[in-house]
Amino acid sequence: MRSLFDKSGGYRKLHSFNFATLIHLATIRFCKRFIPFQEDPLGKTSGQMIGAARSGRQNIVEGSERAATSKETEMKLTDVARASLGELQGDFEIYLAERGGIPWSVHSADHQALSALNFPVFEHTDDVLHDYWAWFHREKQAFDPWLNSDKPDVFANALIILIRRAMAMLGGQMRQQGEVFLQEGGFRERLTQCRVEARETVPDNTAPVCPACGKTMRKRIARNGSHAGNSFWSCVGYPDCRGTRSIEK
After folding, report:
1. Which of 103, 133, 185, 210 has a CB 3.0–4.6 Å from the CB of 235, allowing a cystine?
2. Dist. CA 102–CA 96, nearest whole Å
3. Is the pTM of this model over 0.85?
4. H or E stretch covering 198
5. Contact by Cβ (8 Å): 63, 28
């Protein structure tokens, strides 16, 4: 019988989640170092940037956990995560622009070097939480030359590149989630399918066997034709088997 609930969680194996985690931590560090409260013109730029970075990460978590019962919600939260990172990218662009800076060219050595870096697949034991953070702190060191830079323009440019990569990953996840929804349907459809399968597994002592394949039959009601509204026996293997029997009154 088909499972009622889809798989959920497992977000720590998503590359988008690991990049979003890196972006979140790096944004906190950037704001503490380069946007001190005294120089924040509205007193909230730093908080909004960190909030956008947090939203990008946390909505991946929530969307992954909600996947068990709602593909629609999973897709919406993935979209929110992507939009939050887009907002954060805009903040870093303005930070550079205010200081006369220009985002790195895609042909620059730094851009190409950062674009080539990836996280390996996360593997763990039964101690997932401990294993994850030990793994993350070890693997993030590859990004440290840019994310520990004392030059704010280098730090900001690096984050723009990482944000754009994470957004591209989330866009791919949304397309994949949409394809799965089209192929397998949502939670309500699974409820109906599982209920039908459960009903068909309950033996009916009055049901005959199918004359075509020998399987058990179940009662159905004709919806069309001259016998519309009348009950009849139908093979549980329908539509693969179309064996029927009439029900004697």
Report:
1. 210
2. 6
3. no
4. helix 187-201
5. no
What pLDDT shows up at residue 12? Answer: 94
| Whole-angstrom distance, CA of residue 140 vs CA of residue 153 | 20
pLDDT per residue as tens digits for the range 142-186 = 999 999 999 999 999 999 999 999 999 999 999 998 887 667 665
Please give the Cα distance from 197 to 123 (Å, whole number).
36
**Coarse DSSP helix, strand, coil percentages of the chain, rounded to the nearest 5 percent:** 60, 5, 35
Residues 62-81, buried b or exposed e (16+ Cβ, 10 A)? bbbbbbbbbbebbbbbbbbb
The 8-class DSSP code of residue 37 comes to G
The segments of the chain whose pLDDT lies below 50 read 1-5, 8, 187, 191, 194, 201
Handedness of CA 193, 195, 201, 204 (dihedral sign): negative
Residue 107 burial class via C-beta count within 10 angstroms: exposed 0-12, middle 13-18, buried 19 and up: exposed
Rounded distance, CA 26 to CA 15, Å? 16
